[in-house]
Design goal:
This protein is α+β, with helices and mostly antiparallel strands. 13% of the residues lie in helices and 16% in strands. A hairpin with a 3-residue loop joins strand 1 and strand 2.
């Protein structure tokens, strides 16, 4: 099975779909607010799910407890 030219080009450039990129919807600081919007807990303002900033941090799964050292 061969790869389509579009998929080959995406693989060569390291394409990441918008739903998997580092964005507010997947950030530790993003909190669900008003349905489709988010509130940035770091800045305290409303953002869209596809907003991006330089302070992105991975969101831990629910129930995850940070190890204490």
């Amino acid at each position: 099975m061969s790869t389509s030219p579009i998929n080959a080009a995406k693989n060569m450039q390291g394409y990441v779909p918008a739903t998997q990129r580092q964005r507010c919807a997947t950030c530790h600081f993003g909190a669900d607010c008003y349905g489709s919007g988010l509130q940035c807990r770091k800045g305290g303002f409303l953002v869209t799910v596809y907003s991006v900033c330089s302070d992105w941090q991975v969101r831990q799964p629910p129930g995850f407890k940070q190890p204490t050292g």
